[in-house]
Design brief:
With about 120 residues, the protein is mainly α. The protein has helices spanning about 1-10, 15-25, 75-100; strands at about 40, 50, 60. It contains 3 helices and 3 strands; from the N terminus they run ααβββα. A 3-stranded antiparallel β-sheet has the order 1-2-3, with no helix packed on it.
Length: about 120
């Protein structure tokens, strides 16, 4: 539960998700892909979009990502990804533990067959 609370504190708003994606896209600060300009502002009507102060090219923090053209709040997408990732991690942990102890729990084998044992 602490993991979910920490996640919500870090990515619980659209603004925080936009800032995170902008940091990933431009780690050293905004750089226009058109002219190389370093000054930009965000559009009030489209907060995911930055406009270059030099050439006025508009660039979205979601362009080229799985979030491109989504109308859903980024905070919802981030939460969904977190929940799927944590579920997958738990599942992998269960499978790993099961292999260590000699059996895969029901519902986790997905058709996997046990390796034949040497006699």
């Amino acid at each position: 539960m602490a993991g979910l609370l920490e996640f919500a504190a870090r990515f619980g708003t659209e603004e925080r998700c936009i800032e995170h994606l902008a940091g990933l896209r431009w780690p050293g600060g905004f750089v226009c892909s058109g002219c190389g300009g370093r000054q930009a502002w965000r559009l009030k009507a489209r907060p995911r979009v930055y406009e270059c102060g030099t050439c006025h090219r508009q660039e979205s923090v979601t362009a080229g990502t799985v979030f491109h053209r989504t109308r859903t709040d980024l905070s919802k997408w981030f939460l969904a990804a977190y929940l799927m990732g944590s579920r997958q991690a738990r599942r992998l942990g269960q499978i790993s533990a099961a292999r260590t102890w000699g059996g895969v729990p029901d519902g986790l084998d997905h058709g996997a067959q046990a390796a034949p044992r040497a006699e």
